[in-house]
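Entry for the shared binder. Reason: the reviewer on the internal report wants the predicted structure included alongside the sequence.
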Amino acid sequence: MAENKIESLKKSWQENTLAPLVKRFGERKPKFTTSAEDMIVETVYTPVADDGDYMEKLGLPGEYPFTRGVQPNMYRGRFWTMRQYAGFGNAKESNERYKFLIAQGQTGLSVAFDLPTQIGYDADHAFAEGEVGKVGVSISSLRDMQTLLDGIPLDKVSISMTINAPAAVLLAMVIAVGRQQGVSAQQLRGTIQNDILKEYIARGTYIFPPAPSMRLITDIFRYCAVEVPKWNTISISGYHIREAGSTAVQEVAFTLANGIEYVQQAINAGLDVDKFAPQLSFFFNAHNNFLEEVAKFRAARRLWAKIMRNRFGAQNPDSWKLRFHTQTGGSTLTAQQPDNNIVRVTIQALSAVLGGTQSLHTNSKDEALALPTQKSVEIALRTQQIIAYESGVADTVDPLAGSYYVEWLTDEIERRAEEYIAKIDDLGGALRAVEEGYIQREIQDAAYRTQRAVEKGDEVVVGVNRFQTNEHHEGELLRVDETVRLNQIEALKKLRAERDPAAVNAVLAKIEQAARDPQAALMPLIVEAVETYATLGEICDTLRGVFGEYTPENWV
């Protein structure tokens, strides 16, 4: 019997794409089997017969259109990065939590910052009262960042930071700490979220108006392409769009529309798409509708590949790849019967793995009640490890491919997302759609429909609107001590007394001057500023003085 087209292409892929990768990096095991040692699990499975559009729609792993994953062998080489989101109180407390997580097998850090840090205020600012260290770690200066990363080798551990409006400042601090550790910026690995559009859409931790915010983002793209090449300069976030109440289709559509806007703005600023696009990354949510979520990830990957190749003309295959981090759905966690959240998180995490995520955070069971305790964080991490080491789902690439339902869902999510993107294009792009409130209204309508369905009982949430009990949570809850702010204020007083005020004032003056010149580079000056121990608030206030602050339109 003659070899069919797919078999021929697969053989070529095995010889030319897969084999060189395995020869260079190896795989986790010499061979992969089921519980029966003679039942060998292959790297990838394809249709036994040529069914027409297989190669166009799915292709082979590590090749366009990347429906089946961005790496030829995916998790057979190494597992996804297990990156638990953590941060609370002061830098010392958070550093201890990071070291605990690393000791438990975590392979990357994900830093949560408190609200004052997220909106560019030092801990001693009047607006910071009551919020210092509450939903993340308080970082006001390079000294705090030094404490936060103390004993963590930046040449070995990647750092992801959920920071947006002041992302340039926090990245500058990591660069400075790296230099002090003897780690060059060229070696640093990590991600800054740096996605301001979704802040206007869904989250609200913005500082500056859209135009200067986009300038800062493209400035980071330009700087990192040369100085910090292994760093992901943006994590275009669907997570918070989904948390605000969007559907899975809307999450894909609005996230990729934001991505299109960032790429276009960077091109407009004179950047070469193939120089910055490989440093773009994405951040998605994982919700409870298991197969829809798997299909969502596959559809997003395929659609982005088409956008980058066909719309923007990118030539480098790395520019076509949608690489993403996943976090399980915070909005799905319930205060009622919190142990049920362990099951929810397991289902969500499994969907992310089967969908081909590059890194993963699993929420803790008690996060609907408070910041997670060390014990609940450990359970959340163990959930990932059990999926990785015990379930077998990581032993072959994209194991749900070929399911009639999953493939239909993948196609349908892609089609509907394309319709949304076309509508946004008609409005003038994502930035214009945000300014007009279109995206916000679409999300609000979806959130309202979902909430009404829960209230009417049409959509079941176990323990909330069905199968309720009268139990109350009696376990330990983590509370942040109110003395954290007082200690941070004292630390800032000490810092300002010890630093060179002339050096600080001089570099802040240079930042102000550069901010007034649309062509001037800001990132090198911000790195210089943090190394003089200018604070986060001082740098952001300097930029506020030039850029102003964003006030949303009354479209609600």
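Summary line for the report: The beta strands are 81-82, 85-86, 108-111, 158-161, 190-192, 231-232, 234-237, 280-286, 324-328, 359-361.
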